[in-house]
Amino acid sequence: MEYTWQDRKRTLFGLPLSFTVYRLTEEKLFIETGFFNKKEEEIRLYRILDLTLNRSFGQRLFGVGTIHCCTADKSTPEFDIKSIKHPKDIKNMLSDMVEAQREAKNITAREFIDDDEEDCIH
């Protein structure tokens, strides 16, 4: 499988010293966590509804940031791509790839406002 982008969650001083790995293909985002007990989450790009870039002062000092994602997926309605290098570039690339997947699959994003459900806003 060929990856468009991959990185590790960065920790102290922006170093990739964690067991969280992010991999992106044309259609899916994979998030692998753990050392002894591994978990791999797979998110189809066309299901991503909203992307938000968050950068604390400490993250800005070390050139990293976190992308918060809201999805239409029932099992993973929200997730974070934490502490990655070049977060603004990755967010823009991911946003473009999400739109390309929606167009390729003829999927339109529909927004529903419901007072009973909590919106994905952070």
Report a brief summary of the structure.
The chain is α+β, with helices and mostly antiparallel strands and 122 residues long. The chain has one domain (5-104): PH-domain like, CATH 2.30.29. It has helices at residues 57-61, 87-104; strands at 5-8, 21-24, 28-33, 39-44, 48-54, 64-71, 78-85.
Could you please describe the fold and organization of this structure?
This protein has 122 residues and is an alpha+beta fold. The protein has one domain (5-104): PH-domain like. Helices cover 19% and strands 35% of the residues. It has 2 helices and 7 strands, in the order E-E-E-E-E-H-E-E-H. It has helices at residues 57-61, 87-104, and strands at 5-8, 21-24, 28-33, 39-44, 48-54, 64-71, 78-85. The chain has a 4-stranded antiparallel sheet, with no helix packed on it. Strand 2 and strand 3 form a beta hairpin. The radius of gyration is 15 Å and the shape is globular. 20% of the residues are buried. Residues 111-117 have low confidence and may be disordered.
